[in-house]
């Protein structure tokens, strides 16, 4: 099979393209003919060695993807052969992810896709949609609450806006341009605030009639803390999926209100019931056509290094590596 891999941590140039033996599924596993491979920030950070050192002699990157099951291992029903699936955690604790023509995964990590969902859309779901779900629903229902989503045009933020709105929340998104505001509003944001041109905290307090917000899905805890500390209600929740690179706020955290919850979210370390709940809700939303997907630049498999650079450079939308034919 054609594949992309790296054998040392470093810049995108450490990635190599070539041929490898086709994998075979083991007990409880399925083999997927990969059509689309999704690239997330965690993929380039792992490759660069920023989050963990190289864990295997050779790594085929990428956690997310979509394709067709073409073989099953012992203990998996033959009826799964031919099933269109989206994948999650493909390279978590395993050496070989989705940047290859075939990948072998636990059967539970290959989730059936409803008919209207395309392979490129399926490749967007794993990290972004499941992260958004955990950030939003780990602390109870959202109906009637006000949710702030900084970065509503980002991969996680785009899904968070939709999922919050679908759950009956009023959604505010903080963005940096008119173009990104259009993306957030198209996803369902009731209000957008341009943090480059407006007093973000004052605008949010104005929108909420001075009450503030119940819940924040946070993409840059360090940079946004001055706003967060002012707008989060008493008993509010800030769910952090990216801390940012700036100076972190001091401990104890000086929020304006009391009884706040600060939740650090890492999709790979979510409890299994949380993963199951995310998959169940995402599947229901896909079946009803309720979720839209923000796909970004596409790259052929041989240019996976350029795809990593695009994500690292802040490309808008989910970056996709096109692997095979649908």
Structure characterization notes:
This protein is of the alpha/beta class. The protein has two domains: 154 residues, Quinone Oxidoreductase, Chain A, domain 1 (Alpha-Beta Complex); 139 residues, Rossmann fold (3-Layer(aba) Sandwich), CATH 3.40.50.720. Helices cover 28% and strands 26% of the residues. It is built from nine helices and 15 strands. The strands form three sheets. Strands 3, 4, 5, 6, 7, 14 and 15 form a seven-stranded mixed β-sheet that branches. Strand 9, helix 5 and strand 10 form a beta-alpha-beta unit. Helix 3 crosses helix 4. The longest helix has 17 residues. The protein is globular, with a radius of gyration of 20 Å. The model has no long low-confidence stretch (mean pLDDT 95).
């Amino acid at each position: 099979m054609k594949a992309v891999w790296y054998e040392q941590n470093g810049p995108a140039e450490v990635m190599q393209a070539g041929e490898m033996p086709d994998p075979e599924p083991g007990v409880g596993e399925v083999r997927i003919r990969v059509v689309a491979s999704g690239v997330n920030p965690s993929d380039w950070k792992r490759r660069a060695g920023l989050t963990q050192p190289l864990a295997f002699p050779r790594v085929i990157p990428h956690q997310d993807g979509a394709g067709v099951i073409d073989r099953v291992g012992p203990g998996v029903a033959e009826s799964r052969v031919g099933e269109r699936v989206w994948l999650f955690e493909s390279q978590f604790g395993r050496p070989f992810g989705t940047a290859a023509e075939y990948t072998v995964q636990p059967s539970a990590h290959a989730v059936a896709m409803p008919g209207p969902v395309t392979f490129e859309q399926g490749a967007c779901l794993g990290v972004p949609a499941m992260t958004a779900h955990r950030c939003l629903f780990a602390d109870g229902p959202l109906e009637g609450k006000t949710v702030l989503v900084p970065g509503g045009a980002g991969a996680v933020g785009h899904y968070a806006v939709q999922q919050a709105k679908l759950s009956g929340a009023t959604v505010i998104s903080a963005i940096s341009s008119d173009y990104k505001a259009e993306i957030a509003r198209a996803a369902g944001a009731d209000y957008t605030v341009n943090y480059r041109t407006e007093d973000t905290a004052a605008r949010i307090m104005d929108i909420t009639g001075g009450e503030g917000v119940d819940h924040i899905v946070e993409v840059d805890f360090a940079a946004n803390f001055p706003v967060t500390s002012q707008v989060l209600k008493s008993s509010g929740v800030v769910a952090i999926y990216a801390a940012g690179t700036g100076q972190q706020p001091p401990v104890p955290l000086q929020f304006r209100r009391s009884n706040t919850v600060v939740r650090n979210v890492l999709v790979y370390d979510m409890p299994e019931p949380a993963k199951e709940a995310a998959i169940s809700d995402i599947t229901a939303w896909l079946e009803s056509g309720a979720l839209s997907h923000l796909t970004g630049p596409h790259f052929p498999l041989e240019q996976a290094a350029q795809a990593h650079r695009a994500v690292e450079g802040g490309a808008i939308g989910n970056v996709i590596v096109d692997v095979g034919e649908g």
